[in-house]
Amino acid sequence: MKITLFTTNQTRHNYFINLLSNIATELNVIQESRERSIKTIHGHYPATEIMKGYFEKVLEAQKKLFGDSEFIKKKNTNLLSIKFGEINKCSLQSISKFLKSDIFIIFGSSYIKDELVDFLIKKSAINIHMGVSPYYRGSDCNFWALYDNNPHLVGSTIHLLSKGLDSGPILYHAMSNIKADPFEYTMSTVK
């Protein structure tokens, strides 16, 4: 089975790449690279001190749960590395080699739109969203769920990709048992 994954270079995403490479006959990865420091939140807006502290602890919890997962390239894996946020600058023709798969998964990439989202919707692409839709959509959802004192809404949603932000038909909510450490709790819902 051929799989194409749209993702980033964070530890949890590399862990997932390595898992998929064990089951795919061919794994095509379009990986957006972003800084692993907390100067801004995903390159979108300046991080407040509260958010910096939160995400520094998330990175620590991520390392604890996923180890030092670096992407380990195997023979069955093709990789295209691009800057975070530049996925929509890629024409379908320029990434055509990566679009010949049976299954398409989005996990942690920037917002996909235009001709690429149309293609992926036709292919019934699956999005793994770190947040419980429809309550929390977009980025940093588990942060906002905890900030809003809604720990019962920390989790992830697996849904079909749609043109709306994390609004496709929901297939599954992945939840974890609440843990004393909120950072390990949010990362355990990822795992």
Write the layout of secondary structure elements.
Layout: E1 2-8, H1 11-23, E2 26-33, E3 40-41, E4 45-46, H2 49-66, E5 77-83, E6 103-107, H3 114-122, E7 126-129, H4 141-147, E8 156-160, E9 170-174, H5 182-190
Parallel strand pairs: 1-2, 1-6, 2-5, 6-7
Antiparallel strand pairs: 3-4, 7-8, 8-9
Largest sheet: 7 strands, mixed
Intertermini distance: 23 Å
Query: What is the molecular shape?
Result: globular
Helices and strands, in N-to-C order? EHEEEHEEHEHEEH
Adjacency order of strands in the biggest sheet: 5-2-1-6-7-8-9
Number of helices: 5
Query: What is the residue-averaged pLDDT?
Result: 87
Our estimate of the beta-strand percent is: 15-25%
Which blocks of ≥5 consecutive residues have pLDDT under 50?
37-43
Total number of strands: 9
Helix/strand structural class: alpha/beta
Q: What percent of residues adopt helix (DSSP H or I)?
A: 25-40%
CA-atom Rg in angstroms: 16 Å
